[in-house]
Design brief:
The chain is about 30% helix and about 25% strand. The chain is an alpha/beta fold. Strand 18, helix 11 and strand 19 form a beta-alpha-beta unit. This is 3-phosphoshikimate 1-carboxyvinyltransferase.
Length: about 425
């Protein structure tokens, strides 16, 4: 069994961190470029397993994907209707984003596609995408009543029909899959969400000359004739990766960090709002726009935090950051109450259960799990412990920061950070 021991960071973390490319935007940059017909030069691409799964998928569908370096590539497609039938089964790896968005793109295509993935992805629910696409006329078949991998998309004689879909969940993946299918459909396609989810798809579609209309929590797309690909896409740094350093800077005494080139799209910055509400010392500098996406450098310094309360309304803006926010809450004065996070039970693992079980090893009795959230009692003593990552990158990185801020931790199966942040442990070591 592979383990990694993280020691306490006694004197604080100091320095600058170049944040790796945003995972969501890296996925979309390759997918959308492969639907154009001219070369697109992509820089600051996230060279991690999930995004490489997307690059491999687009290559299997006939696009040219040429890596110049780990973080730089050129993608050339054959036009919006130029995807080719893959020669074999497509492997989405561990990536739910790859699978769900690709189902939207491939549901209207005139050829058969079959998807597989790793053991974790085989357990994740895909019915939330398959059901609306089927309502548009797609023919998609999967295990367990069209819910689970492997999944096959069968071509149909008629074009998909546009529709208005009232989504029961605020999910960028669900919304994106339907909008991408809607590009090929007859008539307009509208997705209405209970709350607005991340809008990376809409912003990048705009960069490819495709206009979407927003009305409250509803987004509408019209049938699309062609993509006008930009020559270049610079991917901003991923705020979900910056989140670990944001929290580390807040809770480890003596810390002063500058995080370079962080995407600060307002649909993603819930963690900044929550940490500031808890009393964090966070400043945005050098604010700018890149490829339709807001970016900035973020300075974070140690500060005394206090507990807070948040729920469903902000959840789409910080769902991936709940594990690391829970770490911040352990070092805050008073209780932090998190509700409306039931979505975390169907991620790479049941993250609510993972946080409860593993964080309590380091801070006994500090975390109470609820059906859709957590109650975290801040200020309890932190001890060294051996904890399990569940092969979940966000749990592993959160445990590492908890150990660095507490009394150390030994993490089982630590290498799962390669899913989104291969340089994470080296970066932590360099900031001590």
């Amino acid at each position: 069994m592979d383990t990694k021991t993280i020691a306490k960071a006694a004197a604080g973390l100091k320095g600058e961190v170049q944040i790796p490319g945003d995972k969501s935007i890296s996925h979309r940059s390759v997918m959308f470029s492969a639907l154009g017909s001219t070369p697109v030069h992509i820089t600051n691409f996230l060279h991690a397993q999930d995004c490489l799964s997307t690059a491999a998928c687009m290559k299997a569908l006939g696009a040219s994907v040429e890596f110049k370096s780990d973080t730089e590539l050129v993608v050339t497609g054959n036009g919006l209707r130029g995807l080719k039938e893959p020669q074999t089964i497509i492997d989405a790896g561990n990536s739910g984003t790859t699978l769900r968005l690709m189902m939207g793109i491939l549901a209207p295509q005139p050829f058969l596609t079959t998807f597989t993935g790793d053991a974790s992805l085989h357990k994740r629910p895909m019915g939330r995408v398959i059901a609306p696409l089927s309502q548009m006329g797609a023919k998609i078949y999967g295990r367990q009543d069209n819910q689970k991998l492997p999944i096959t998309i069968v071509p149909q004689a008629q074009k998909l029909k546009g529709m208005t879909y009232n989504s029961p969940v605020a999910s960028a993946q669900v919304k994106s899959a339907i909008l991408l299918a809607g590009m090929y459909a007859e008539g307009d396609t509208t997705v209405v969400e209970p709350f607005t989810s991340r809008d990376h798809t809409e912003r990048m579609l705009e960069a490819f000359g495709v206009h979407t209309e927003k009305n409250g929590t509803a987004v509408t797309i019209h049938p699309v004739k062609e993509f006008n690909a930009p020559q270049e896409i610079e991917v901003p740094g991923d705020i979900s990766s910056a989140a670990y350093w944001l929290v580390a800077g807040c809770i480890i005494p003596g810390s002063d960090l500058l995080l370079r080139n962080v995407g600060v799209n307002v649909t993603r910055t819930g963690i900044l709002d929550v940490l500031k509400d808890m009393g964090a010392d966070i400043t945005l500098v050098n604010e700018r726009t890149s490829g339709g996406e807001a970016a900035a450098d973020i300075r974070v310094r140690y500060s005394k935090l206090h507990g807070t309360k948040f729920g469903a309304e902000i959840m789409p803006r910080l769902i991936d950051e709940i594990p690391i926010i829970a770490v911040a809450a352990l070092f805050a004065e008073g209780d932090t109450v998190i509700t409306g996070a039931g979505e975390l039970r169907v991620k790479e693992t049941d993250r609510l259960q993972a946080i409860t079980d593993q964080f309590n090893k380091l801070a006994p009795g500090a975390v109470d799990g609820t059906e859709d959230g957590l109650v975290i009692h801040g200020g309890k003593p932190i001890q060294h412990a051996q904890a399990f990552s569940y092969d979940d990158h966000r749990i592993a990185m959160s445990l590492a920061i908890l150990g660095a801020a507490g009394d150390g931790v030994t993490i089982e199966n630590p290498e799962c950070v390669n899913i989104s942040y291969p340089a994470f442990y080296q970066t932590l070591d360099s900031l001590r």
